[in-house]
Amino acid sequence: MPWLVACCLMLLLYSVRLRSGWSHGHGPRSFPVIGCLVAFYQNRFRLLDWYTELLAASPTQTIVVDRLGARRTVVTANPVNVEHILKGSFGNYPKGKPFTDILGDLLGTGIFNVDGELWYAQRKLVSHEFSARALRELEFAVLEDEARGRLVPALGLAAARGDAVDMQDLLRRFSFDVICRVSLGVDPGCLDPALPAPRLAAAFDAAAGIIARRGSAPVAAVWKAKRALDLGSERRLREEIRVIHEAVMDLIRTRKKERALVNGGDGRRSDLLSRMIECGYPDEAIRDMVISFIMAGRDTTSSALTWFFWLLTRHRDVEREVLREIAGGASHAAGGQGKMRVLHAALCETMRLYPPVAWDSKHAAAGDVLPDGTRVERGDRVTYFQYGMGRMESIWGADAAEFSLRRWLSLPEDNAPPAAVAGVSPFKYPVFQAGPRTCLGKEMAFVQMKFVASTVLRRFELAPVDEGRVPVFLPLMTAHMAGGLNVTVRSRGDHITAAAAAAGSTPAAAGGPN
């Protein structure tokens, strides 16, 4: 009977895979045909911790996940493998068609969704733009305006009324305003209580959520079928993408008209969209590029800052040390927090435990063998797992699960490789990727995080509404805190100096909870 023949063929294929070395000795228990589908289903609500446990138990910190309905996946938390994937054999590990299919409807041919020559050309252009003084000055000005004109008043109002506020929501709206003003040159006013919620922000939120579900779907054929039939969430995604694309294209057309009127004179703008128009790129290429940067920048810094503020409420000794550093004379202007080592260490430690992107995947263009001996076949999904790497004792020591600034403050700043973060190899700490695809916005992200952190902490003390709650880390396109971060706000007034002095002169290296 046909079904019996089909089953026999699948069993034969599985046995061939085992004999050919496709299987690996480390990973979840697998069975013929279904692979590790049973274990995957049992752990579907705790995949991050399950993968972390499997990686920690593997002698190589690498596992192979093989299950029905998904391509074979190699997951690694081994820094040597990460360097091989992201640098040594960079050309063999592009994002690949399975990845670009998921994001292609929204990002098109933007830099985060392409490989090869198209990626290289965009990378070269954007690298030049990000190093431009005008764009950096625009970011500083926007940060200061948004923080002092909207973020601080919003927190001040909550403090005066005794209201609780969701810091995650506040920070996400703040970040969306900033990224839109820097990328598009328009102010959506997400943090302005006098304005209605912008449709563009809602469209980005909805599109990101649906695309994240695409990426986590057990069987990709399901969402592809829904897209082909224009059903359910895929119909909604198409509608939201139309809103985003039309909004950006309208801006491009308007900006071109403005440019024609001023004829390149004093009306020149510094935002990314305007600068790309000046470079003569086609409209659709400009659209895809700026949408890519909005998607990359809208939630990453807000995610890191949300977990940062929560961790400080659990480690008041670290908060006091950060306050002491803030009170020690750092500039209040955006970009003036560059030498704040304690704050920098606290942000790095936050992202070690709660990275804005929990994992990142490539797809092998050809067969390969990783440095630890793991075989990779053509078409395999190869994932380096930032969330798990931050918890590996083999990388960070026996206290890997603890929030400790000592691991950063004890490192020498001199003689660090250029791509290092606070002296740590980017292949050990790939929060900003590494190798040729290292995040171009890394420095701008730290500028924003340090400025927001110092601006808020200088003025306000935050306390969780539920002190005993341990939030759940949600690995969507960008990681979120499930349920948000609901806090009460108290104005510090002139007490910051006293609070900082209470920290003494000894750095909060251990960072243990009170």
From TrEMBL:
Q: Does Oxidoreductase count among this protein's keywords?
A: yes
Which molecular-function annotation in GO is an example for this chain? oxidoreductase activity, acting on paired donors, with incorporation or reduction of molecular oxygen
The secretion signal range is 1-18
Q: Cite the entry's keywords alphabetically.
A: Heme, Iron, Metal-binding, Oxidoreductase, Signal
Residues that coordinate or bind heme: C439
Q: Kindly give the CDD domains that the UniProt entry links to this protein.
A: CYP86A (cd11064)
Cofactor(s) annotated in UniProt: heme
Q: Pfam families from the xrefs?
A: p450 (PF00067)
The family annotation for this protein states: Belongs to the cytochrome P450 family.
Name by which UniProt lists this protein = Cytochrome P450 94B3-like
Write down the species: Panicum miliaceum (Proso millet)
